[in-house]
Design a protein that fits this description.
The protein is mainly alpha-helical. The protein has one domain. Helices cover 65% and strands 0% of the residues. The protein contains six helices and no strands. α1 runs antiparallel to α2 and α1 packs antiparallel against α5. It is globular. 29% of the residues are buried.
């Protein structure tokens, strides 16, 4: 599915090349089909351009917000319902936490500005536990 040779590509190209299936699964678990479609758009964009376009940048920052649980407390957003179905002790949550750390690292290495998103300083497992507490 991912055709780009990551040699010489950006950190985001390499991340998606190496972990595309896990990124897709995480997006589906946290946001459903619309977020899976977002990941597929990112993959298409990365396949077509050796640089990070402004559209890809926006999509990546949205994905970052999804992975860092920015909107799980907003009951009007679908992320809230998807998050409520997750077991914080599940292996999928651990995968999401690892992917979030890798995504944040790639964002920083590629110089995507923090003006577009405040990168989380919270440990991922702590974010999941705190969000679950807040929702109960």
């Amino acid at each position: 599915m991912f055709d780009v040779n990551p040699t010489g590509a950006t950190a985001l190209h390499k991340l998606f090349h190496d972990h595309v299936e896990k990124i897709q699964n995480a997006a589906l678990l946290l946001g459903g089909q619309s977020e899976l479609a977002r990941v597929q758009r990112i993959v298409d964009d990365l396949n077509w351009s050796p640089q990070i376009t402004s559209r890809t940048r926006r999509e990546i920052m949205h994905l970052h917000q999804l992975f860092t649980l920015q909107h799980v407390h907003d009951e009007g957003r679908p992320e809230s319902a998807f998050f409520a179905m997750l077991d914080p002790a599940s292996p999928e949550v651990e995968d999401i936490c690892l992917l979030t750390d890798r995504l944040e690292d790639a964002i920083q290495r590629d110089g995507i500005t923090t003006m577009e998103a405040q990168l989380s300083t919270f440990e991922c497992a702590g974010r999941f536990a705190a969000a679950q507490r807040d929702l109960s």
